[in-house]
């Protein structure tokens, strides 16, 4: 499993807001955190930082969009800003199970001839909903869809664990099968997720 404590000892036990202020000096402290869990995804670092009761407890390698971060539909960029986990799919599915339209196919990704080029959604899905109208929810100022939920942006398992730690997805946040199973069990719906630079 690709889970570890932070390498910098002084970062252990800090809150998400304190962490954001450390890594992103422009962060203004305005936040949407509710509940006991929170997640910060760093696109620059290709990592997801997990906070339990607002203390950092784990870090996972991830793969975000191969294209630059972008909130616009069809950009294939990972959206920025505050989100929540709106829906969870895949309870009990074996690792590597392929999901199409959030429904389990019952088949492992290696059963598909094109798995090495297609990059299927596997193992578990944590679907995200944007919380910032005009930024990652609804339409932007130009009337274009910027809605994370309507773009079908997820945390999900990847067919390409060797790509984790570098941008490779079509906008979703990819994780190893073992890690997404752990995250699925750890995070309830409505958990706040901040995706930052």
Name some characteristics of this structure.
single chain; about 200 residues; mainly beta; L,D-transpeptidase catalytic domain-like; 11-stranded mixed sheet; 3 helices; disordered N terminus
Question: Any chance you could write out the topology, listing elements then pairs?
Answer:
Layout: E1 3-4, H1 16-23, E2 37-42, E3 47-52, E4 55-61, E5 81-89, E6 97-100, E7 103-108, H2 115-118, E8 121-130, E9 154-157, E10 173-175, H3 177-186, E11 192-196
Parallel strand pairs: 2-11, 9-10
Antiparallel strand pairs: 1-4, 2-3, 3-4, 5-8, 5-11, 6-7, 6-8, 8-9
Write structural notes for this entry.
- This protein is 11% helix and 31% strand.
- It has 3 helices and 11 strands.
- Strands 1, 2, 3, 4, 5, 6, 7, 8, 9, 10 and 11 form an 11-stranded mixed beta sheet that branches.
- Strand 2 (37-42) and strand 3 (47-52) form a beta hairpin.
- It is globular, with a radius of gyration of 16 Å.
- By secondary structure, it is mainly beta.
- It has helices at 16-23, 115-118, 177-186; strands at 3-4, 37-42, 47-52, 55-61, 81-89, 97-100, 103-108, 121-130, 154-157, 173-175, 192-196.
């Amino acid at each position: 499993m690709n889970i570890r404590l932070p390498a910098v000892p002084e970062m252990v036990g800090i809150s998400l807001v304190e962490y954001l202020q450390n890594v992103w000096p422009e962060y203004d402290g305005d936040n949407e955190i509710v509940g006991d869990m929170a997640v910060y995804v760093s696109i620059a670092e290709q990592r997801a930082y997990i906070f339990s009761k607002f203390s950092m407890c784990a870090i996972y390698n991830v793969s975000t969009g191969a294209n630059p971060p972008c909130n616009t539909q069809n950009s294939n960029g990972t959206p920025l800003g505050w989100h929540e986990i709106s829906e969870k799919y895949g309870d009990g599915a074996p690792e590597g199970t392929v999901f199409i339209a959030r429904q389990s196919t019952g088949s492992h990704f290696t059963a598909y001839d094109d798995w090495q080029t297609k990059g299927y959604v596997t193992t578990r899905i944590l679907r995200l909903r944007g919380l910032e109208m005009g930024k990652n929810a609804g339409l932007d100022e130009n009337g274009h869809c910027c809605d994370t939920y309507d773009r079908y942006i997820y945390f999900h398992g990847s067919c390409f664990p060797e790509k984790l730690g570098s941008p490779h997805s079509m906008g979703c946040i990819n994780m190893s099968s073992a890690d997404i199973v752990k995250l699925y069990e750890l995070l309830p719906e409505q958990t706040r997720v901040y995706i930052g630079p």
